[in-house]
Amino acid sequence: MLAKAYNNDTKLMSDNLRQLLISIGRKRKIRKNTYLFQEGMDAKEIYLVQSGLIQIGKLTPDGKELSLRICKKDDLVGELTLFSDESKYMLSALALDDCDIITINKTTLEQELAYNNALTFEYMKWMSVHLRKTQSKIRDLLLNGKKGALYSTLIRLSNSYGVKQDDGLLIDIVLTNQELANFVASARESVNRMLSDLKKQKVISLNDTGKIIIHKIDFLRMEIGCENCPIEICNID
């Protein structure tokens, strides 16, 4: 069971907006390792996650997979297509677990928001936060290189899934080195070497279940010139 982010009490989506999405949607189950949608498909629906994890990613021009988000309960997926005519999904959504989701017809939601200015404003604010998060992740990758992108990914994971322990922060989610590499758009072998170096410096370690413990998070922040972005921006969701 995943832990709640240890220092994130920010509630980005209001109850009113959540209830609207649930009221006009329909429940659906998605099996693990199944795509909810893939890049280039016609975008006719958006999705509200009820349980499980959905990975949002994109193929780079050289064929590497770049992971941008891991969506969990109460996160929206496919939201960037709203209010766009004949839109297509710009990213792909892969179920990392068996998931329960709410499927919402895009046209229906657009009509509902058109008649409710307050909820439209809330939706726009929510969208703005997620665009800022995506921009900050791309900035980390472009400005800090592969190593900096890995360090920032570990920081973001700690903000989303970190659990305080006596010896540091446990990232309460299991990710393979290949999955971490996807967040950096790098080869697994490169990530293996970088993680090994961090272990030698006692910055991180692994527990018996393969979960990462960060012992020196200030080291990671210093290495990338961390700007101490708000928690709602600096996370992996």
Summarize this structure as a short list of keywords or feature phrases.
disordered N terminus; alpha+beta; RmlC-like_jellyroll; 12 strands; 4-stranded antiparallel beta sheet; transcription; 6 helices
Query: What is the average of the pLDDT values?
Result: 84
Unreliable segments of 5+ consecutive residues: 1-10
Number of DSSP helical runs: 6
Instruction: Kindly report the spatial arrangement of strands forming the biggest sheet.
Output: 1-8-3-6
Q: How many beta-strand elements?
A: 12
Which percent bin holds the helix content? 25-40%
Given the C-alpha coordinates, what overall shape results?
globular
The string of secondary-structure elements, in order, is HEEEEEEEEHHEEHHEEH
What distance separates the N and C termini?
A: 17 Å
Largest sheet: 4 strands, antiparallel
| Residue share in β-strands | 15-25%
Query: What structural category do the secondary elements indicate?
Result: alpha+beta
* Radius of gyration, in angstroms, nearest whole number: 18 Å
